[in-house]
Amino acid sequence: MHTKIYVGRYKADFYLPKHRIFIEFAGMMNYPGYKEHQVKKQVIYHRWQIIVLWVTPENLNSEYIINGIKEMIKKQELKQIRMDKAFSG
Question: pLDDT at residue 20 above 80?
Answer without folding.
Answer: yes
